[in-house]
Amino acid sequence: MPIRLIGKHGHFKGKTLYQLALNLKNFGVGRVVTRQAFQRYPEKSYYILTKVVPVMSDTRQSHGEAWGHRVFRGEKFEGIRKIDVGYKRDWLLIPKEDQEEFCRLSEKDFRPDRTVPNFSTFPPLLESLIKQEKAELGEDVSVPLKLPLKTKNLKHYNKGLQTPT
Which of 5, 14, 60, 68 is most solvent-facing, going by the fewest CB within 10 Å? Predict the structure, then answer.
């Protein structure tokens, strides 16, 4: 009887974080791991494992909990974070002899700061309507109009900061 596959094919190639951790001493605490999905960014992204608790009864070795220090796109996050995507099959273990070199961040490994202006210009039709209203009220229309922009500071948006228990 032929086997018929149903559903989508996964695009992940590799091992889960827990498959890697089960083959390491002390479940890989202190080791550096990264994901293949992180390779799309020019800056380095990786985790330094601090605690891994795999589910030992799971035959596929795809469940558990893991925590670590996170470096994402060259930016180090304070504290220990829970790794929520350990079940995905695209984790890579950095060899011990290459860890120090891999974790060294150079100038190209940092994302440049992006600045957003505080003001913008009005759309042309809206600008002409506002100038027309100001002219009818007798106000000065020679001053250029500026539209204030409200921005959210995402630098301090630190979701998911947790500590292992």
Answer: 5
Nearest to 35 by CA among 45, 24, 22, 48: 45
In which element (H, E) is residue 120 found?
Answer: strand 119-120
* 155: nearest Cα among 117, 120, 114, 118: 114
State the DSSP string of 121-149: PPPHHHHHHHHHHHHHHT----SPP-EE-
Three-class DSSP category at 56: coil
pLDDT at 159 over 60: no
106-149 pLDDT tens trace: 777 777 777 878 889 999 999 999 999 999 999 988 888 898 88
How far apart are alpha carbons 165 and 163 in whole angstroms? Answer: 7
| H/E stretch holding 103 | helix 96-103
d(CA 38, CA 94): 14
- Is pLDDT at 49 greater than 50 in this prediction? yes
Phi/psi region, residue 57 (left: phi>0; alpha: psi -120 to 50; beta: rest), is: alpha
